[in-house]
């Protein structure tokens, strides 16, 4: 299949191209498009055979449900049932934006879109290209992140092209996404709202609106060695894994630098191609030949925005072994570390003691 690629300026939408993309969705085809979090791989959410094409293109297990993207609040009642007041409160504060809510699904949403579940994940994205595409399609758009299953989520159109070229009808190139981590997922079907995936909308931001909010025990660090089953089916898969062996090094900053210098020195002796992921503040302190700047600790959004791109660059360069600093601080720390530790297969070294830990 020849994949059409259109550049779209988000501040000056070319509606002819957007309508062409919307028609592809309406006709049951697949379109890659930008959202404010990551690029999505879109299909008609209300058509099970269109959703099935998403699973095929990504190589995604069919029990892993898709997020349904809507463009206005009135559409919520088309896709969800028994909508609690909490959903409207969150929608008023955070939509359009990087928040996905789990609600009971309406009968109109096919089970093929929800991975067989009676609940549905719904999000109203804020990216102008995404909103215009949903409206132009005349339907709702099921869209997982646009990567091949197991690879880092796409934050640039180039990543989508790399993973999906030749497999889908069209890719809309809206440039680099703003946030760079997938949306926060909150489950509103239980007695207390529960975060199933951390993201840009933090627990305290949700608590501001809702009062008590819990976090799925399976994604909390202290439960790393216990066999909890994540409530978001997608969170159980090994994600974002670079081809190189990635380890996160934690501890007192100066010790982390010393430990990483020691470890990369060993790699060089063994003839392995090593790389370091570090923040701007520390770049000069590493002896390794390949040091990747992930952003600055002064603005943790920069760390979030660059993480997936850096993991892909490591693959392109054939890096064998990667050591990364850790980035726990700030409101986004939980979301960043959730993705980084998944990418590392939860391999962590404590720089203070040299001990290997297993962390979520
Ligand atoms: O930011 C985002 O959310 C991006 C953009 C494209 O909107 N999409 C995205 O989709 O990250 P995906 O498919 O990569 O991740 C969706 C996650 C998966 O972990 C899936 O298991 C979970 O949402 N999920 C979807 N429906 C669910 C449901 N009914 N109950 C529990 N988890 C659900
Ligand atoms: Mg994904």
Short description:
The protein is an alpha/beta fold and 360 residues long.
Task: Give an account of the 3D structure.
- This protein is an alpha/beta fold.
- It is built from ten helices and 18 strands.
- The strands form two sheets. Strands 1, 2, 3, 4, 5, 6, 7, 8, 9, 10, 11 and 12 form a twelve-stranded mixed β-sheet that branches. Strands 15-14-16-13-17-18 form a six-stranded mixed β-sheet, sandwiched between helices.
- A hairpin with a 6-residue loop joins strand 2 (31-33) and strand 3.
- Helix 1 crosses helix 5 (128-137) and helix 9 (300-316) runs parallel beside helix 10 (333-343).
- It starts with a strand and ends with a strand.
- Threonylcarbamoyladenylate (TXA) is lined by residues 35, 37-38, 40, 64-67, 100, 102, 114, 117, 119-121, 123, 125, 143-145, 182-183, 185, 196, 231-235.
How is the main sheet built?
12 strands, mixed
Radius of gyration, CA atoms, in whole angstroms = 20 Å
Strand percentage lies at 15-25%
As residue ranges, the low-confidence spans are none
Number of helices: 10
Give the N-to-C terminal Cα separation: 39 Å
Count of distinct strands: 18
Share of residues in helices: 25-40%
Can you tell me the overall shape? globular
Bound molecules: threonylcarbamoyladenylate, magnesium ion
**Elements, N to C (H/E):** EHEEHEHEHEEHEHEEEHEEHEEHEHEE
Secondary-structure content class? alpha/beta
Mean pLDDT: 94
């Amino acid at each position: 299949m020849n994949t059409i690629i259109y550049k779209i300026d988000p501040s000056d939408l070319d509606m002819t191209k957007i309508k062409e993309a919307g028609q592809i969705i309406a006709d049951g085809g697949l379109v890659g498009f930008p959202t404010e979090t990551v690029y999505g791989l879109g299909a008609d959410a209300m058509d099970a055979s269109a959703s099935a094409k998403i699973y095929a293109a990504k190589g995604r297990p069919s029990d892993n449900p898709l997020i349904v993207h809507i463009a206005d609040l009135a559409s919520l009642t088309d896709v969800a049932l028994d909508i609690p007041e909490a959903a409207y409160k969150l929608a008023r504060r955070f939509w359009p934006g990087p928040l996905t809510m789990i609600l009971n699904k309406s009968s109109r949403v096919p089970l093929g879109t929800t991975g067989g579940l009676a609940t549905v994940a719904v999000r109203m994205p804020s990216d102008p290209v995404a909103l215009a595409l949903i409206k132009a399609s005349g339907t709702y758009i099921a869209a997982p992140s646009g990567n091949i299953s197991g690879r880092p989520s796409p934050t640039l159109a180039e990543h989508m092209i790399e993973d999906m070229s030749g497999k889908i009808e069209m890719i809309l190139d809206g440039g680099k996404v703003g946030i760079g981590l997938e949306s926060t997922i909150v489950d509103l079907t239980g007695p207390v709202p529960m975060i199933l995936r951390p993201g840009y909308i933090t627990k305290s931001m949700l608590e501001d609106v809702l009062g008590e909010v819990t976090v799925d025990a399976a994604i909390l660090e202290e439960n790393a060695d216990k066999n909890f089953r994540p409530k978001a089916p997608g969170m159980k898969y090994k994600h974002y894994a670079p081809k190189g062996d990635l380890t996160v090094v934690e501890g007192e900053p100066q010790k982390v630098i010393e430990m990483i210098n020691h470890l990369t020195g060993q790699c060089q002796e063994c003839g392995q191609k090593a790389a370091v992921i570090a923040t701007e503040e520390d770049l000069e302190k590493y002896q390794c030949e390949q040091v990747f700047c992930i952003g600055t600790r002064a603005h943790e959004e920069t760390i979030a925005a660059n993480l997936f791109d850096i993991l892909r660059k490591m693959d392109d360069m054939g890096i064998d072994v990667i050591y990364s600093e850790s980035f726990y601080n700030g409101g986004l720390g939980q979301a960043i570390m959730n993705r980084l530790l998944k990418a590392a297969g939860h391999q962590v070294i404590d720089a203070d003691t040299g001990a290997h830990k297993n962390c979520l």
